[in-house]
Amino acid sequence: MAAAANLLATLGDLERDSFVALLSKLIAESKYVQNNPPELIPQEDRVVKHVLDVLLPFSTTTGGGPLLVNHVTYHAGRGNLIVEYPGTVPGKILSFVGCHMDVVTANPNDWDFDPFSLSVDGDKLRGRGTTDCLGHVALVTELMRKLGETKPNLKSSVVAVFIANEENSAITGVGVDALVKDGLLNKLKDGPLLVFLSYIYLLHL
């Protein structure tokens, strides 16, 4: 319990301004990540770009931190992102999987506000993808940023997997199915795994 309390103290509270600023950028991309083929093919890399803007400064890619960042793309413009904060004990791992960067198609005429722009009313956030699932993308991005920034001494590695193509099964070989096929998620079986969809599920494989 003391270790958990120390970790929470190190990470601190969610930084509202940083979270809302990132989410605002992601919601602004929601028009371009609507998933309704063949009319609409999402370009998830538009979301990936904003996530990378936040995380790369704390990554081994830039030399600015410990985060291991792997941008995996099977179709042009439709990338997945695997981000790892390394722990100290080999084989110990905690993972967050399924924060997807595509959204269900929205008709702006069905809304009394612009669904492709984040609106903030106190603690109420509205915009296409806020709960399914761009809000989760922003939240987990902020968590990984905090880990990369504060560099806590953790036994378990922490892995976040941001995926493409969750909202439609008409096209395969783009998102998590391709990552699994290539064995890129195999090591996640060694520890607890949180699955983010519209809701959050806890699995222990």
What percent of residues adopt helix (DSSP H or I)?
Answer: 25-40%
The main β sheet shows up as: 6 strands, mixed
Extended strand count: 8
Question: How many individual helices?
Answer: 5
Largest beta sheet: strand ordering: 1-2-6-3-7-8
How confident overall, as mean pLDDT? 90
Oligomer: single chain
% residues in beta strands: 15-25%
Q: How would you classify the helix and strand content by structural class? A: alpha/beta
State Rg. 17 Å
From the N-terminal CA to the C-terminal CA, the straight-line distance is: 24 Å
Order of helices and strands: HHHEEEEEHEHEE
- Poorly predicted runs are 199-205
Q: What does it look like?
A:
With 205 residues, the chain is an alpha/beta fold. The protein is built from five helices and eight strands, in the order αααβββββαβαββ. It has helices at residues 2-11, 16-28, 45-55, 134-150, 176-181; strands spanning 68-73, 79-85, 93-100, 119-121, 124-126, 157-163, 192-196, 200-204. The protein has a six-stranded mixed β-sheet, covered by helices on one side. A two-stranded antiparallel sheet has the order 4-5. The longest helix has 17 residues, at 134-150. The protein is globular, with a radius of gyration of 17 Å. Residues 199-205 have low confidence and may be disordered.
Summary, kept brief:
The chain has five helices and eight strands; from the N terminus they run αααβββββαβαββ.
Give the SSE layout.
Elements: H1 2-11, H2 16-28, H3 45-55, E1 68-73, E2 79-85, E3 93-100, E4 119-121, E5 124-126, H4 134-150, E6 157-163, H5 176-181, E7 192-196, E8 200-204
Parallel strand pairs: 3-6, 3-7
Antiparallel strand pairs: 1-2, 2-6, 4-5, 7-8
Helix pairs in contact: 2-4
